[in-house]
Amino acid sequence: MSPSTIRVVGARVHNLKNITVEIPRDKFVVITGLSGSGKSSLAFDTIFAEGQRRYVESLSAYARQFLGRMDKPDVDSIEGLSPAVSIDQKGVSRNPRSTVGTVTEIYDYLRLLFARAGTPHCPQCGREVQRQSAQEIVEAIERLPEGSRLLILAPIVRGRKGTYQAVFDEIRKAGFQRVRVDGEVRDLEEDIQLERYKKHTIETVVDRLILRRQSDPEEAQTFRSRLTDSVETALEFGDGYLTVALVPREGEPRDLQFSEHLACPECGISLPEIEPRTFSFNTPQGACPECQGLGGKLEIDPDLLIPDKSRSFNGGAVVLTEWGGPREEGGY
After folding, report:
1. How far apart are the C-alpha atoms of 124 and 281, rounded to whole Å?
2. How confident is the model over 128-150, as pLDDT tens digits?
3. Where are the domains of the chain?
4. Domain 134-272, what fold?
5. Which long-range contacts (CB under 8 A, 24 or more apart) does 301-310 make?
6. What is the pTM of this model?
7. Displacement of CA 150 from its chain's centroid (Å)
């Protein structure tokens, strides 16, 4: 048998009577015949059914529970056949996060492929993202606005479940006094208890600084030396990653991500190392912040809900009840 053919031996599905046939691969093949001669039985119930069965058998038990059990077609053997997959358009799950890619686990392989073979690019200018040195990170921090209050943080745990008491002990032994746990700065002398089954982010507070432009050269050099030492310490303790938290006197704090691994030299944007979860809409690291990875966002249109804004609620301003059908006449 040539490797460029699919050989079916002894097919006996439905109207097929012990048929043996060779079909060329990578060709557009048409099967013709009278009604009831077994065209669909050969194409769908034999060849495709066996290809799909082989694919399903390669999946995990979790995926197979959605696809169901598939029996081997009545045939002696099929050679040269590749696994095949097909799923109904109506879907196999009501979960909006379930797609053809997730159910068949093809999505997992694609995420791994992009994470390992992909080349990250800057989301602003489109240039290839490059690595940053400690000196380049220091210069980027010095370009922040005058008077900025900074926390130099070393990321230790990012969005993972556990209590991490051993991590806190390690940070204490390293000589640090504070950590930021899930966005809150805590003193290591406290008894920090974390929920085991909740995801946490733990960052070591390496230094706290106020960015000031020193007019005296000696003071400027002293500040730069301290900043450089803090950045190098954070990079070493954070395995090449560093977070600078801007703590304004008013408003929400803002985090700047820096890395010895990936950064855009033109825009100054730093990106975390790409991982499989970066491409997953089921994780906070990869999901769209607007739709939370669901692909859509439900919002209320005030103009449709209250078309006549001159009317009161009791006067029938709201035209829908329970966000569904039309409201009856009268008060709401």
Report:
1. 21
2. 887 788 898 899 888 888 888 99
3. 5-79, 134-272
4. Ribulose 1,5 Bisphosphate Carboxylase/Oxygenase (3.30.190)
5. none
6. 0.48
7. 29
